[in-house]
Amino acid sequence: MSVSAGLTLVLSAVVSPLYLGVIQRTKSFFAGRAGPPIAQTYFDLFKLLRKGAVYSGTTTWVFRLGPIAGPAAGLAALSLLPQGPAAAPWSFPGDFLVLIYLLAAARFFTLISALDTGSSFEGMGASREAAFSALAEPVLLLSIAAAARSTGQTSLSGIFAGAGAALSRGAAPVFLLLAVALVIVLLAENSRIPVDDPSTHLELTMIHEVMVLDHSGPDLALILWGGSLKLWILGALIVGLLLPIRTGHPWIDWLVFAGGMFVLALVIGVIESSIARLRMNRVPQFLVGGGAFAVVALALAMR
Q: Are 89 and 186 contacting, i.e. CB atoms less than 8 angstroms apart?
């Protein structure tokens, strides 16, 4: 692992909570209110870290493992992802499959920690999360497969490096379609509107939030940080594919990457401000629609 790659990994882990603040401020702007500070997520994390954790007598070590395993899997997935001009700390053929499995592992530990409480309420949220993730994961896999086919590479570093040449060869429709599919995956995987509302506590509509109701203190802080890591990873994946700009000047490339991430945060905020949350029975249709975009992108890439 090079020094620049290691520093990028650490910086991304530190900056990722700020991403949630940008989205929230965008939503506040469209709602016509001041909203919380852009660094509100950091304030929430520090407040939770100062508190103590409360554990139910029915829970076991599985409940305590969930909040730790999620951020750990997120950091491991982040180490496979190139960002801006910095190479990925680890790169090998087929590493995108490992990234997908790491994200799935983080979700798995969140699911079993929710089930470990013995609460039917949290079990309901876990079942919803498992059902929707079964539709979202194939979309993510097909999207990256389309990018791999277009670039002729089998690693994330190779895919990002070859994206510019692929776009110049006329693969723009493929990347546009898979970008739409990946945005749908990002919204679903991070429990954003229209799939879920992270600010709601209405029993009939909760998915992710209901699974972490029994977590408190540092455990809840780890879950919040792990969620910001997942949002950053999927955002960096989209920006890396759509803006494969390599000028040879690191500072310019960093500005392009940071600008792309900022614009994507604005887009997420606009989407959440413009549309309402879908009814629960409409969410599978939304994810299947994302799968259709990914399938068409893969078909075009295989021509």
A: no
**Angle at which helices 40-49 and 217-242 cross, to 10°:** 150
In this structure, how many other beta carbons lie within 10 angstroms of the beta carbon of residue 300? 18
Do the beta carbons of residue 303 and residue 201 sit within 8 Å? no
Please state whether the peptide bond connecting residue 194 to the residue before it is cis, i.e. omega within 30 degrees of 0.
yes
Strand-pairing partners, residue 83, are 86
Strand (E) or helix (H) holding 164: helix 156-168
CA 37 to chain centre: 22
- CB of 235 closer than 8 Å to CB of 267: no
**pLDDT tens-digit readout, 76-104:** 999 999 998 888 889 999 999 999 999 99
| 217: nearest Cα among 48, 94, 47 | 48
- Reported pTM: 0.94
List 86's β-bridge partners, or say none.
83
Residue among 296, 125, 147 nearest 208 (CA):
125
Residue 191: which region, alpha, beta or left (left: phi > 0; alpha: psi -120 to 50)? left
Q: In 139-171, which positions are buried (b, 16+ CB within 10 angstroms) versus exposed (e)?
A: bbbbbbbbbbbbbebbbbbbbbbbbeebbeeeb
From residue 269, give the alpha-carbon distance in Å to each of 177, 235, 260, 286.
21, 13, 14, 18
What is the residue extent of each domain of the chain?
3-301
Amino acid at 233: I
149-158 pLDDT, tens digit each: 999 999 999 9
Q: How many angstroms separate the Cα of 232 from the Cα of each of 18, 60, 262?
A: 10, 31, 11
DSSP state of 52: P
